[in-house]
Amino acid sequence: MKQILIVEVSPRTGVSASRKVTEKLSARLRSEFPDAKLAHRDLAIDKMPHLDDSMLKAISAKDPAEIQANKASGRLSDELIDELLASDLLVIATPMWNFGIPSLLKAWIDLVVRAGKTFNYTETGVQGLAKEKKAILIIASGGVFSDGPWKAWDFVEPYLRQILKFIGIEDVQTVRVEGLNIPPLAGVAIPNAEVAVEQLIL
Ligand SMILES: Cc1cc2nc3c(=O)[nH]c(=O)nc-3n(C[C@H](O)[C@H](O)[C@H](O)COP(=O)(O)O)c2cc1C
Questions:
Q1: How far is the CA of 141 from the centre of ligand 1 (A)?
Q2: The predicted structure's pLDDT at residue 63
Q3: CA 153 – ligand 1 centroid, Å
């Protein structure tokens, strides 16, 4: 393992459940892979811009002159993609907000899922270019979504698994920190997730 990329999302620094469980995972990663570089993207601090006209031209134009003219606008996307492609393991730690991912994370995804860089359209379909990587998702939520009546409302894990598969990352494990707003579960959600972290196959 040469590099591990940890993407954190929650702005609730100090009290965030997803961050607390990520700390536990980081400690395990540091102990099991002492030589690996831990790259850290904190999207609550390092906020990603939404794609604008110039950025779209930089990342999707076909005309070389147009690409050149907008090169500077594509630099952040280039940098984030290089960081992702250089990593063997991607950790995404995120809260569920309104049944989906926070737009902070969606903005990062919009910058890294890019034709010709992380996926290609081929005659036989889409080819993911982020090969031989693993991912771990740490998902915190007030309710319970891993099973039961609210499972169908979960647009976090299915979406993240699908978009990672699209770019070639199919080995994905999930740790749920769930039931944080349900009194009987709230007290055990983090300890249970920490046990799940110990059981992850690294
Ligand atoms: C804006 C917002 C929207 C939320 N939407 C949901 C939701 O749709 N479903 C849910 O179960 N919990 C929801 N929650 C609760 C969070 O998922 C929960 O507080 C979780 O702990 C957040 O992760 P964090 O502690 O890492 O910030 C929401 C919280 C906020 C602040």
A1: 5
A2: 84
A3: 13
Scored b (16 or more CB within 10 A) or e, 54-64 reads ebebbbeeeee
Sign of CA dihedral 150, 153, 158, 160: negative
111 lines ligand 1 (CB under 6 A): no
User: Is 3-199 a domain of CATH 3.40.50.360?
Assistant: yes
Question: 55 a known binding residue?
Answer: no
Read off the pLDDT of residues 165-193 as tens digits, 9 standing for 90 and up: 999 999 999 999 999 999 999 999 999 99
Atom of ligand 1 nearest to the CA of 177: 21
What letters, b where the CB count within 10 A reaches 16 and e where it falls short, cover 182-195?
Answer: eeeeeeebbebbbe
Sign of the CA dihedral running 128, 131, 46, 22: positive
